[in-house]
Amino acid sequence: MTSSNIDFVYQNQIFKIKNPDSNEILLNYIRTKLKKIGSKNGCSEGGCGACTVVLGELKNNEINYKAINSCITFLPTLQGKQLILVEDLISKEGSLHPVQKAMVNYHGSQCGICTPGFVMSLFSMFKRNSKFKDNEIKDSIAGNLCRCTGYQPIIKAAKSLKNKNKFDHFSKNKKSTINLLKKINNKSIVIYNEGKKYFAPRYILELKKILKKNTNSELLSGGTDLSLIVTKERKDINSIIYMNSISELSYIKNNKKYIDIGASTPLIELESYIQKYYPDFTKILKRYGSPQIRNVATVAGNIATASPIGDCLPLLLALNAKVVLQGLKKTKILFLDDFFISYRKTKLKKGQFIHSIRIPLFRNNTFKAYKVSKRFDDDISSVCAAFNLEIVKNKVQSVRIAYGGMAAVAKRAIYCEKLLLNSLVTDEIIHKAKKALEKDFQPISDMRASKLYRIEVAKNLLEKFFAEIKQKKLIGIYA
Ligand SMILES: Cc1cc2nc3c(=O)[nH]c(=O)nc-3n(C[C@H](O)[C@H](O)[C@H](O)COP(=O)(O)OP(=O)(O)OC[C@H]3O[C@@H](n4cnc5c(N)ncnc54)[C@H](O)[C@@H]3O)c2cc1C
Ligand code: FES
Ligand code: FES
Asked: Architecture of domain 254-479 in CATH?
């Protein structure tokens, strides 16, 4: 079934928007059309969390509650989901939600501009976890900034929720919400509005047909990069194809040789899945944007942007990942090494899309990754490094090292790798390998870091890697 109307569940009813503007931003719709002004606009770029709302998505007959940044979400992507705003947390009888009560009891608000966003992030954590640890509290609010209350009262409020009864009016209405979500969950969307086109196919076959006729469309996954064209550059996107309603592209599988990740899988799912195989991949993902970002952003989007500071890229290069590209007729599988051309340029052609990403499983190797940024959470890397080495009896048997933030695109340290391969790990060889990085990279200076800082950090991270494996422990202030 195809429709030009968007259906979503709001306040336990189905809401319909007829033929919306495909470039309309959800926060704008909430504040100006729904006339709910609890959600605030602080930055329009996903950086402050003031606009945080929660989406309920149907998964395995359950509702998955996800905090998102409504300031960088295109309105039509609401199709088939439940929208929960800070105004909806209060019960019909007028009593505050346990999360709101906790914020009041622990004085978690002063000027209040950030408060609705914090409440919604904590609400999402409250609904997602039956139990939560202190680090999960901090992680859940990593995408919310407060400049006057400070974080301690908010953290105390969250801790007080640990032993609270999780039954709230959303639990009470869960069955009927699921029924409503099921009713609206089964249609593809095609919108033509004032010269702008928007497609949300549900199957790969449908996607290919749309791509054939609309080769100049922008593919939209989490939108955490693409939406900024509208919110920051203030340009229109004339034709959008939304990938995340194609369930065939949302999966993580493992065939014992490699982990296979469908293009639409949100990073938050990869974060927990990959922990068992590559704990440092999870460590980097936990510092990737915020939960609001990772709830929607995808590895495919990260790869396709080919940004020099895309955090997945050095990790995937070090792990020798492959990217599966699908065209209208053919499928091409490329090593990621061969996918990037130059600054924000890839081999992806018009009419092609990223279908999936394959990460090999190295059983005998040591894989480590490090991110250095000005701020620990919710910040872009100055330098990101990934090391994947097999060392037997102190001799390097195989080596792949890649860095982000050191060149126009994430890149392997080929000279450094050559020097290390088949060498015994000694202080002298580590010294020479550090020196070789000067041959591999000529970084630039920008607002994040100077070129001198970048090259020094890159060398130090290499030394840290060897020191950590020698001492069999983590070294550093965050260890
Ligand atoms: C507040 C904030 C914090 C961020 N923090 C980080 C960070 O810490 N580290 C980091 O690396 N990045 C960060 N980013 C950047 C961004 O989140 C990532 O690049 C993200 O992975 C993009 O994925 P997406 O699914 O949102 O892509 P989208 O924005 O949907 O798309 C990005 C690009 O990829 C293309 N694309 C999307 N899906 C496909 C597909 N299946 N096939 C082909 N092309 C496709 C789109 O056409 C577009 O050109 C941040 C962004 C924001 C707003
Ligand atoms: S307004 Fe700052 S994250 Fe949305
Ligand atoms: S209460 Fe003022 S910014 Fe947080």
From this structure: 2-Layer Sandwich (3.30)
